[in-house]
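Entry 14. Structure prediction run on the chain below.
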Amino acid sequence: MLASSTLSDDYQTSRVPTTDGQAVSYREGALATDSPRIYYVNGIRTSGIEHSLIALALSRVTERIVIGVFNRSNGAVIDLAQSLGDWIVSGQFQRAEFCGRDRLTSELCKVVEQQSKVLALDPIRIVRQFREHLPEAELNRFIELYIGVLNPATVTLFRELQAHRHQRQIIIAHSQGNLVTCNALAALDLVFGETALSQIRVLSLASPVAAWPSAIRPQRKDYGFYNDLVTFADPESWWWFARRLVGNQQRRAGDWRSWGDGSLGIDMHGIDKHLECLAVANDLRRTLSLPNLEAGRSHFGVNPAICPKPAR
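Output returned:
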């Protein structure tokens, strides 16, 4: 990770997040603008200083203000438990979208009945029924309570995306940050419909998410290392499953490579290695009509010489 000494004492005091779900804006350079809105959502075991350093580096290479949504670490065991909970919630949202009744949809049915005396009988169309018969404020309140039980960062990102849903927005999510992002997007879809996701693009790094909302899939790019164990929480990383059952319907590969000798592990999981060694930064710059970064130079604190070559 980037050295913490690159942050001044004053900056550490004023701009380093400490609260779970805290959103902080980072501007590196006088020319940084806020259009499009760019968010960075970190993964597990990330300190406030590390979060700030990555957000500042992203601001520098994008020449944009970057809004960091802090997913605070509470230790390895609690972080892993929270990630599992986020992973389960993402699955519940997908069942609500495609299959119908589970805990989420059952609770929403109760609210629908109380508010409108209309019960959605067709489970495949249940989400549309919620939007038609439940006041937006009530549905919004319920969804925030539901997604906020496990992770306040999900609520923060949901509120940010909701408030600016008519603007172009880009999310850079790493590791557990993908679960936060997936659940915030699913909540946005549930409350406002698929069109609310039309202006959003996701750059997904080392993702453990098994299923994303269908409306975001065309605007999502996936980056990672084949031998990163964390990505195996996504069945699409099981090559035999992906080839036979999934194909390329969900994963839109941005850049995937093998780290080192190809042995399974987590040494390659850090966001600095993904940003330095994969095509994430240059893909992002091209999206912003900026030229590629200077090749052979370190931009995220990792020696480019250790980076694996692109797959042929």
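Residues 4-73+152-306 form a domain with the Rossmann fold fold (CATH 3.40.50).
Filed with the rest of this week's runs.
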